[in-house]
């Protein structure tokens, strides 16, 4: 089982099972995470900035590839509604643009 640590959410630790998207894993913990299109890969509001562990991600989805080609998804970002982990530990953070107003972010 893989682990995601969200640095600017008080180092929230989320267990991610094989085949589970990061968004589903976050939702399973009761954590609110921006996803304007409902997790369909039609926007970039659910993205996470990957600080460590990019090698533990599965391949880019078609939606992620499309947004990368358009310059809307940086090399150190993934869409939580699209990506899965292959194992290991990953550290990420919520981008400034997609922080939710009712949550307290650190750092």
Automatic annotation (TrEMBL):
Keywords attached to this entry: 2Fe-2S, Iron, Iron-sulfur, Metal-binding
InterPro entries documented for this protein: 2Fe-2S_ferredoxin-like_sf, 2Fe-2S_ferredoxin-type, Adrenodoxin-like, Beta-grasp_dom_sf
GO biological process, one term: P450-containing electron transport chain
Domain 2Fe-2S ferredoxin-type: 1-98
GO molecular function terms listed in the Swiss-Prot or TrEMBL record: 2 iron, 2 sulfur cluster binding; electron transfer activity; metal ion binding
CDD domains, A to Z: fer2
Domain of life the protein comes from: Bacteria
Cofactor requirement: [2Fe-2S] cluster
Record-stated family: Belongs to the adrenodoxin/putidaredoxin family.
Protein name: 2Fe-2S ferredoxin-type domain-containing protein
Native source species: Pontibacter actiniarum
